[in-house]
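Much of our argument rests on the idea that a fold can be written as discrete symbols. Part of our work consisted of pairing the sequence of a single chain with a tokenised description of its backbone. The amino acid sequence and the backbone structure tokens for this protein are reproduced below.
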Amino acid sequence: MTNNIFLHGLKLNTKIGVPDWERAVSQQLIIDLDIQLKGNQIFTSNDISKTIDYAEVESEIKKVALKHKHHLLEDFGEDIISRLQEKFQFEKIILKISKQKILPDTDFVGIILER
């Protein structure tokens, strides 16, 4: 038995990209995140300390995005995962970050990191 929380479709704006033209303006990223909680707890109360508050997870992701220091989605993703590992205890994380309309014939490009 496993327990997970997730945030899907988190939209945030940040400056990211390798070429200068791409970093000149903020662009929207779409983040999907799945976190496997530690243990196999059966939830029998409304005690939020028994899980991870996804509002806090969202807040931490936004803090990383505000740095505007990333060129690669991979680096940005690693910073997000490191920040969440420092703040929360969990078993596994899957992070997907997408950018829209970067390539003329492709709707989305992005990365998936699993730790």
Observations:
- Residues 34 and 81 are 11 Å apart (CA to CA).
- The chain has three helices and four strands.
